[in-house]
Amino acid sequence: MFSSFDLFFLLVVAVVFAYGFYRRYRLWKVGNPEQRTDQPKERLKSLWAYMMGQTRMLRDTYPGWMHLFIFYGFLIPFVIVVITQANFSLPKFLALPLSLLFDFIGALGITGILLAAYRRYVQKPENQTYDTSLGNLIALLVLLGIFALGFSIEGLRIARTQPEWVAWSPVGWVFSQLFSGLTEPNQVLLHRLLWRLHLLLVLGFIAFIPYSRMLHIITAPANIYFRSLTPKGELPPIRNFETAETFGVSKLEELTWKQLFDMDACTGCGRCLDHCPGAVTGKPLAPKKNWDSLRIHMEERAALRRKGVDPDGEGQKKLIGDALSEDVIWACTNCLACAMVCPVFIPCVDKFLEMRRYLVLMESRFPQEVQLVFRNMENNSNPWGVGLGLRADWTKGLEVKTMAEDSEVDLLFFVGCAGSFDDRNKKVATSLVKILKTAGVKFSILGTEEGCCGDSARRIGNEYLYQTLVQANIEVLKNYGVKKIVAICPHCFNTLKNEYPQFGGKYEVVHYTQFLAELIEQGKLKLTKSVDKVITYHDSCYLGRANEVYEEPRKILRAIPGLKMVEMERNHVRSFCCGAGGGRMWMEEKLGTRINQERTDQALKTQAQMVGTACPYCLTMLGDGIKEKGLEETLTAVDLAELVEQCLEKPPAEEKK
């Protein structure tokens, strides 16, 4: 039982902990309000899966099991100790197995701590940076000390009482051998001293939590609970866009409380650095390091406010330019890799987007080459600047009807800017038209009435231009009563499906790979011609990570006779970006290695003859990567629609042509 001194010390620890936590809370509460408590059942399910189940942690074997051992090494013994301190008496048939479980879990906890120390101070994995400061070393030693003292206390009890159930405490028995030579009075005295030291160490560690990286013990589960439940590929609109006097974020307090909370939820595991295409290719973008910079900036601004100094005064550090360079902000490809591998669901895109919005809408400060892209979108509703009246020219000879000519169709084929204007991707659009006709699908296109979906404008930060494009498209779609849309571009697909509903545009939107996979399964498309080659498939970010379309493209490839498929090391959710997302398609890549070349190298390692894509951006970037590296005779970039069209069993009348 606790003595008066123990209770007093417990009170002191509670005060120290509460004060430390309150100081962090004050840093978060300066942010803008944001609703993150809706759908409580879904949030609790997430907490169970990702905290208790450690689902994302276990994707990486070594650090995953290491963290699992430490997590349950503390949680289960803590629960058992609380039960025993409450004088709750367990029946013998439960008490003995619990004793064995206590020893087993405790041993795993020690193993986890030793694995963590080895990984942090000896192994030091490439692309991951660990904080090896004295504070973190002390934290590991304290954790190890808590486990060692716990087993020492158990060992002293066994050495003194020699209980008949000693076989149920194997680790405790091993520790008991250290004290078997002591006299009983010395065993009793040492037991009391170690018990007291153990209590002080545990309580001291609890008090230490809000003042160290150990804060993630609390903030990480909270961040999982408060995570965004909106579609992964959806970006938020600007709040009060019509009446707002400023747009985007130029100082930390203009972020939401949740975005500030993210800084303290970071566990420092470094997974984001291993998967971020910017970090891997030597750009200044490195999520973990960027969050460290933002957290320091947040603390510095709070310290200035406590001193009565204006943090926005002359000579003070600014968010854009000091805490984060503009190179960092513009380097993000919006690929979502960081958010998908982060065990506590910290996103990058939302924060960088708000800073881009400020730079574009308030400062007119953005990469020079983007100016022409904006002008082209404003004047001709496409990034290339080709005349709007030429949007349907690619259909000549294909006998494709527009919605103006026939709106009584099964679906609308939303071609997108690339399929309409880019020579390479016109071939893909043409292939899809031939496939749909072969399958007997009744469809139309918008032709010259189709405008840019606005994806690039929004992700570069020009929300005004984006909303202008959106409203124009929604008006056209509304006029024709469009209900179902098939898109060839994952960026169009994502924008129409996940973001147009923000403005009243609600449709059934599918990507062409989903639609073709269904047609093949229904027997409406028969692939009979053999393709005796080896292909590797590149998961595009906004088809895969953003919308979880992974299997349909692979079903299509498996249906092609003679085609052998091999996977790149980075595939599915861990696929590597082509480098074109987030508006980067239209910006020069001046820093580090080119991302498309890095991905091309990854495809080359599979020894495949073709790299398949289902995205016009990816097709362009990988095709360029192959040319830049002089690999045209070794590797070819193809779109899945082209392969399907090549293998089709065509109607006899068409075969004669």
Protein described:
The protein is mainly alpha-helical and 657 residues long. The chain has three domains: 4-225, Transmembrane di-heme cytochromes, Chain C (Fumarate Reductase Cytochrome B subunit), CATH 1.20.950; 252-362, Orthogonal Bundle (Fumarate Reductase Iron-sulfur Protein, Chain B, domain 2); 369-652, no CATH class. The chain has helices spanning 4-28, 40-52, 61-85, 92-123, 134-161, 170-176, 184-208, 216-225, 257-265, 271-275, 277-280, 287-306, 326-331, 337-341, 349-362, 368-380, 416-421, 423-438, 455-460, 463-479, 490-499, 512-521, 551-558, 595-604, 616-628, 640-647, 652-656; strands at residues 411-414, 443-444, 484-487, 508-511, 534-537, 564-566, 610-613, 636-639. Helix 2 (40-52) crosses helix 8 (216-225), helix 18 crosses helix 26 and helix 24 (595-604) packs across helix 25. The radius of gyration is 30 Å and the shape is elongated. The chain starts with a helix and ends with a helix. The model has no long low-confidence stretch (mean pLDDT 92).
List keywords for this structure.
657 residues; mainly alpha; Fumarate Reductase Cytochrome B subunit; Fumarate Reductase Iron-sulfur Protein, Chain B, domain 2; 3 domains; 4-stranded parallel β-sheet; 8 strands; 53% helix; elongated
Helices and strands in order:
Blueprint: H1 4-28, H2 40-52, H3 61-85, H4 92-123, H5 134-161, H6 170-176, H7 184-208, H8 216-225, H9 257-265, H10 271-275, H11 277-280, H12 287-306, H13 326-331, H14 337-341, H15 349-362, H16 368-380, E1 411-414, H17 416-421, H18 423-438, E2 443-444, H19 455-460, H20 463-479, E3 484-487, H21 490-499, E4 508-511, H22 512-521, E5 534-537, H23 551-558, E6 564-566, H24 595-604, E7 610-613, H25 616-628, E8 636-639, H26 640-647, H27 652-656
Parallel strand pairs: 1-2, 1-3, 3-4, 5-6, 5-7, 7-8
Helix pairs in contact: 1-7, 2-8, 3-4, 4-5, 5-6, 5-7, 8-9, 9-12, 18-26, 22-23, 24-25
